[in-house]
Amino acid sequence: MQLLSDRILNMATSATLAMAAKARELRGEGKDIIGLSLGEPDFNTPDFIKDAAIQAINDNYNSYTPVDGYAELKDAIITKFKRDNNLTYTPNQIVVSTGAKQALFNIAGVMLNDGDEVILPCPYWVSYSDIVKLFGGVPVEVKTSIDTDFKMTPEQLEAAITPKTKMMWFSSPCNPSGSVYSKEELQALVNVFEKHPDIYVVSDEIYEHINYGKGHTSIAEFESMYDRTITVNGVSKAFAMTGWRIGYIGAPEKIARACNKLQGQATSGANCIAQRAVITACNESPEKVKYMIDEFKGRRDLILGLLSDIEGFKCNVPDGAFYVFPNVSYFFGKTLKGTKINNASDFSLFLLEEALVATVTGEAFGNPDCIRISYAASTEQIIEAIKRIKEAVS
Ligand code: PMP
Ligand code: GLU
């Protein structure tokens, strides 16, 4: 009998994590790799959050928590949703999970039946498509390009909808393009959804606070969307807490209760100390972490400036998150230092081997013309990395 399930054999490895692991491995061999593959802030978790965690340990928070999160944490998340997003939720609509990734797993697990279609505007975050497929869903990719700032138009949305469409998943600010949907652009999509009242939306807002001035709108703010939007968020990015593993949703009660049920059979709930720390994070004003956002903005401008000096790198100006997503199709078909570049994966691998810079192929995000470069790294690393890339391709 076959050892491993078809389910796992058919699943792709997370390209972001695989590239980070490869970079780590090469570093272990003594190679001076600059890692710009992983979307992970290089800041320390702020002291006010660390202090809350230390306090929780000393206060002997060591037992299982309620599966969907401590009541105080759910209250803090409700406060956050009201304060930042003008969204009103009750405790039964909130579920705290082990990262936004588990929140997405839960949603797919409780909502998808075999053959249900999920619209994914491309580029999408690397894990969406495999999470959807794991639970029997069928990803329907909607291609966008740099010409529309990698955003899906209402016409494209309309064209992608079929009688089997169950949901659409998207992130704004977007990982990997950094694009932010304005209120007007969301309104145009909402106009289409209003003609299709049975379609749900997963709005992944984990980069909400990493926004360089356009302002953030949650699609659930539109009255016709509130009852069919699952708003996903978490503390990994804005609070530099990737390893703490806390994410959460605000959702229609039926969906939230189903996620609670699924999670009760999976993890029994998120880590208790991390949950206590996140109460503090959610109750504080996002102003507290603005110093990191300001720094990311400076790095965005830096990397865009440096890349504009390299022939063949065509970038949009990302309004949020901490990635650039240059179109590098200029290099396809060319031979660089003896290596034939056929596609974005070849190019990303070439950069790793020749420039010792780790990036991620756009293929993992549903866009085979681009690569993703994270600028959640020090300015010195960014300057050195782009210098090496320039040398490798020229
Ligand atoms: N959504 C997006 C768009 C992401 O970039 C990430 C990356 N970490 C996640 C969800 C998952 O975040 P986490 O599980 O760390 O909360
Ligand atoms: N979300 C981050 C990224 O896109 C972290 C890696 C992951 O969770 O896949 O790089």
UniProtKB/TrEMBL annotation:
Is the Acetylation keyword given for this protein? Answer: no
One matching Pfam family is Aminotran_1_2
Give me the segments passing through the membrane: none
Q: What is its EC number?
A: 2.6.1.-
The entry's keywords: Aminotransferase, Pyridoxal phosphate, Transferase
Q: Which Gene3D superfamilies match?
A: Aspartate Aminotransferase, domain 1, Type I PLP-dependent aspartate aminotransferase-like (Major domain)
Cofactors per UniProt? pyridoxal 5'-phosphate
GO biological process: what's one of them?
A: amino acid metabolic process
Molecular function in Gene Ontology: pyridoxal phosphate binding; transaminase activity
Coiled-coil stretches are: none
Query: Where is each Aminotransferase class I/classII large domain found?
Result: 31-389
Q: Which family does it belong to?
A: Belongs to the class-I pyridoxal-phosphate-dependent aminotransferase family.
This protein is called Aminotransferase
Q: Which organism is it from?
A: Allotamlana fucoidanivorans
What lineage is this protein's organism placed in? Bacteria, Pseudomonadati, Bacteroidota, Flavobacteriia, Flavobacteriales
